[in-house]
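Quick check before the chapter quiz. The format below is the same one you will see on the exam, so make sure you can read both the input and the output lines.
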Amino acid sequence: MQLFLLATVMGMCNWIHKMEIGYNTGYSIFESPVTSGVLAGLILGKPIQGLIIGGTIQLIYVGVIAPGGNFPADSAIAGACVAPIALMTGMKASVAVTLAVPVGLLGIFLINLRKTLAIRFAHSADKYAEKADLKGIYKCAVVYPAILNLLVAFLPVFLVVVFGTSMVDTILKYIPEVIMHGLEVSGGMLPALGFALIVHMIGKPQYIAFMLMGFFVCKMTGWSNLILGIFGICVAVIIIVLKREIKAEEES
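Here is the expected output.
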């Protein structure tokens, strides 16, 4: 029963995101692997571990942009499929990240399939519009896309969570320790890649020094993320205040 509840919730997360329910802020919440990780953790009684796994997967996609509305990877399905499997199999977060990458890429194929099939609804809506048939337009704009998303967005995640766990658990038992260690190392590098994408997207190389400072402060002090966040906010406020004072002195 718990497994089917978990599969249903994860499938609904991906379905709500693909349906874009709740405008931008609403469905973007369900796009985040953090949401999938926390919900899966609550269902399985491991909320903290779920948050860690979801947050680690999210780091891969923090610098991903969608030029022309086309994403290079689907973070929603990556979190919905990988987070529950990682929690149920006891997979480390660094290993879960390496599994999330190919799942996110496969998710793009499902998105493109959904868009291709949905073209038919647009043509049908045009015909209903010529007849001023509001019910027909509503069906083409809401009902039919919802059914299509159940098949393309909900069903794959549901099946992966229900049947994929035992398969992944079996595979992990036969993977040599050296390969698992390699996956952990490569998985640890992927979040750094996500941050690198952000720095590149910002286009401000002079800010790289702050990123390096944060990295070494984290490694040298062992502070928690909360303390590091407060420290970063204080540094940002100091810089803003100094800039305003310098600007005020120049204007005076």
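If your answer matched, good. The chain is about 85% helix and 0% strand.
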